[in-house]
Design goal:
- By secondary structure, this protein is of the alpha+beta class.
- The protein contains two helices and seven strands.
- It is about 20% helix and about 35% strand.
- The longest helix has 18 residues.
C-alpha cells in the first residue's frame, strides 16, 4: 500500500486536522491536504495536496490569538525560499500543534551549524 508520501506503507509521525486541511508530518516532509469545499468542487483549480520537505522550512511560529472571542491558533511556516504557509487550528488543538512545532524545530536545529565561538 502506498500513499502520497511516496514511501510504501509509511505512516505519518503525527496527524492534525486544522481549519480546511489535514497536516501529516513524516520524518523528512509534511503533507498538507486541503479539505475545503472549493477543493472538492473544483479540484483542477485548487491544489489539493501540498508536499513540503522539512529541509525547506526555515522557521515555524505558533501564535494564539488573545482576543476574547477568537477561537484561532495560527501556525506560520517560513520556507527557505522566503515564502510562507499559514495554517489555522482551533485553540483546543494548541497542545497537539505545539508538539508538531517542536518536532519541526528539532529538525531545523539539527541542520543549523553553531558558530565556532559557541562550540
Amino acid at each position: 500500500m502506498s500513499n502520497q508520501s511516496g514511501v510504501a506503507g509509511a505512516e505519518p509521525l503525527k496527524t492534525l486536522a486544522g481549519i480546511n486541511f489535514v497536516l501529516e508530518l513524516f520524518a523528512d516532509h509534511m503533507i498538507i491536504r486541503r479539505t475545503d469545499s472549493l477543493t472538492v468542487i473544483l479540484p483542477d483549480m485548487f491544489e489539493e495536496v501540498r508536499i513540503v520537505a522539512l529541509k525547506d522550512i526555515a522557521a515555524v511560529y505558533l501564535h494564539e490569538a488573545k482576543y476574547i472571542y477568537s477561537q484561532w491558533l495560527t501556525m506560520f511556516l517560513q520556507l527557505t525560499n522566503h515564502r510562507h504557509i499559514t495554517l489555522l487550528y482551533s485553540r483546543a488543538d494548541h497542545s497537539q500543534a505545539q508538539v508538531i512545532k517542536n518536532m519541526i524545530d528539532d529538525v531545523i536545529s539539527k541542520r543549523q551549524p553553531f558558530p565556532a565561538a559557541m562550540v
